[in-house]
Amino acid sequence: MCSVIVQQNLVYSGASLRFHVSAAFSAKAKVAMSRFEPGSSVNYEKMHENINIVRKRLNRPLTLSEKIVYGHLDNPAGQEIERGRTYLRLRPDRVAMQDATAQMAMLQFISSGLPKVAVPSTIHCDHLIEAQIGAAQDLQRAKDVNQEVYNFLATAAAKYGVGFWKPGSGIIHQIVLENYAYPGVMLIGTDSHTPNGGGLGSISIGVGGADAVDVMAGIPWELKCPKVIGVRLTGTLSGWTSPKDVILKVAGILTVKGGTGAIVEYHGPGVDSVSCTGMATICNMGAEIGATTSLFPYNHRMKTYMEKTGRGEIAALADQFKDDLVPDKGCEYDQLIEINLSELKPHINGPFTPDLAHPVSDIGAIAKKSGWPLEVKVGLIGSCTNSSYEDMGRAASLAKQALDKGLKCKAQFTVTPGSEQIRATIERDGYTKILSDVGGVVLANACGPCIGQWDRKDVKKGEKNTIVTSYNRNFTARNDANPATHAFVTSPEIVTALALAGTLNFNPETDYLTAPSGEKFKLEPPTGDELPSRDFDPGQDTYQHPPTDSSSVKVNVNPSSNRLQLLEPFDKWHGKDLEDLRVLIKVKGKCTTDHISAAGPWLKFRGHLDNISNNLLIGAVNIENDAVNKVKNQLTGEYEGVPDVARHYKANGVNWLVVGDENYGEGSSREHAALEPRHLGGRAIIVKSFARIHETNLKKQGLLPLTFADPSDYDKIHPDDKISITGLKSLSPGKPLTAVIKHSDGSQDRISLNHTFNETQIEWFQAGSALNRMKELQ
């Protein structure tokens, strides 16, 4: 077998970032991805060996996701494998962290006492830039406001061998797609939309910071063996239908929790009609159905994209191992969905949840019937989901048609490039001018309004209004902190069309716009090149390579800082049952990580656990009074904010728990939603069901994530109850615990609580946290 080592070295050319690729032949098939860090590699041959070991053991065809996941097993010969039940010990190839989550991840890594990361890792500055005026001004303001945090991340990265992408470089997932993802790689990222990398045939999984620390420490990473949902695509995308419509449709089918515990694997003849970046869009928003990740099989669209982004030799090697990068014939899925792309219509999902799917042709009538505001106040395109060259080109093709008729957007219109490379290239190729001329404001290469980093001025808080975005998530108040904003997610093409029309009651396939001259005209379907005809323009150099010798690098955290705080270890379990826990809040309905630990203005405290804990559950609805951030302090009888009551309980030595509903903790991967309750004295979270990442994050921080054996037992708990959790001395995998509910009238109920702890995770609980346990084992 002919094998290739591909070495990718960084070469600076003026202010631009260039790549030089050289190839050499070797006896082993090894791709050395030292594109910014030494030693970054994945061994296709080793993965091939592991796949064969597992295939013989299981004696059946394997799905693509199984091949890559099992190909990264720490012990393929001995690992117990059963979808949906066993925990796998895996060896991911690399770690990516965005700046908001990297602060806590690096603080935890520093606490571990380890000198260097064990796998290639990068930090990406994209979350702390607030959209306010425009790209240049907003970026400079962010650099000024966040100087302390950026300095901490830059020096910590240099000290511990981590690559650092400076503010302005772009959104983590676009940078990963352009540089680090490739078919067969296993990558974990401290952001829930890490699955974006599945557009290049990788297993890219969103995790909390503590999971990232495990991998950076060289410890096998645990993942519950995923089920596999197959989505078979037939037909061909055309006209107004875009890749975004595939995931909008799937979200409507599976709902926000239908993918929990599963990998979504796209396959079938329709795959070849989707661009590589279009596949990434689909995988990215798979986070909204709770999926562990999503991916596509290796094909010529991926190969072309890798060649265009300086990774042609990797693509050539992937060709040699293509059988390992596509599903086996005859493989079986736990669930199968079929979508005919030729029949798929443009969709728009929302408001307030990303799984409320509607055909664009129906949304006007549905909005009228539902009382949703028809006027579109703002259209926003870009984000990590939809900011590719193709996305911007298709949006620009519509804007150009409008400009040719003298028409500009009726709604406000914003454009967020996904990376510095995309920004520079669309500016060079004229797309930026077209989008600006039609009324667009180009924002910084960052997350911006998608994560609530938006200083919105056109409506007052509480004012009912509609916005349409090409983003991935539209929970209540997520984009602009206004709970009355009705946010809809759709494709960049539909966003552009609705921004031009200024109303939801517009179907671009059939309806007409009116030019200033009075002429009525219909938009032609959008068009756009998948990739630029010339090479990408890399733009400005925004990367910091870690030094070979970092002994002189100092990482300082000012004790008086309100942005950064070194971590103190959480207390160990005392060895007894948890007695008389107070109910901090009984949550009613949807409770995402945005409700538990809000983003937006709170992002600035992501490196300071005590300060950010002041947002604990301030967005959750209290079932007692249907209010947010208003719970009864059972010690004083007064109603106060949730964090205030939690702090009062902690100060008085009173432990507490939270009671929640279905899919508790859906949304972002932010581990602050687990760190905060632990920091303020929480001991357990009891709910009907959990979202995957949040459940793991709670375990990592020494909390007990428990589920009602009988979901109706949720109704037995009252806000003024005291609850004891018994059976902890004999806590073991699969063995339920018991809760004794002590009511204020003196009566009691006993209910059964389930958990998903394995032996290793039980050790985390007993040690007080996973980090505590890591230190015990050093």
Automatic annotation (TrEMBL):
InterPro entries given in the database record: Acnase/IPM_dHydase_lsu_aba_1/3 (IPR015931), Acoase/IPM_deHydtase_lsu_aba (IPR001030), Aconitase/3IPM_dehydase_swvl (IPR015928), Aconitase/IPM_isomerase (IPR050926), Aconitase_4Fe-4S_BS (IPR018136), Aconitase_4Fe-4S_dom (IPR036008), Aconitase_dom2 (IPR015932), Aconitase_mito-like (IPR006248)
Protein EC: 4.2.1.3
Gene Ontology biological process terms, A to Z: tricarboxylic acid cycle
PANTHER family the record matches: ACONITATE HYDRATASE B (PTHR43160), ACONITATE HYDRATASE, MITOCHONDRIAL (PTHR43160:SF3)
Chief location bin: mitochondrion
Localization: Mitochondrion
Top-rank taxon, per record: Eukaryota
Keyword tags: 4Fe-4S, Iron, Iron-sulfur, Lyase, Metal-binding, Mitochondrion, Transit peptide, Tricarboxylic acid cycle
Name listed for the protein in its UniProt record: Aconitate hydratase, mitochondrial
Textual note on the cofactor: Binds 1 [4Fe-4S] cluster per subunit.
Similarity comment text for this entry: Belongs to the aconitase/IPM isomerase family.
Domain Aconitase A/isopropylmalate dehydratase small subunit swivel: from-to ranges: 583-710
Region described as Disordered: 515-555
Single Gene Ontology MF annotation: 4 iron, 4 sulfur cluster binding
Catalyzed chemical reaction(s): citrate = D-threo-isocitrate
Swiss-Prot/TrEMBL cofactor(s): [4Fe-4S] cluster
Enzyme class: lyase
A GO CC term attached to the entry: mitochondrion
Protein's pathway: Carbohydrate metabolism; tricarboxylic acid cycle; isocitrate from oxaloacetate: step 2/2
Role description: Catalyzes the isomerization of citrate to isocitrate via cis-aconitate.
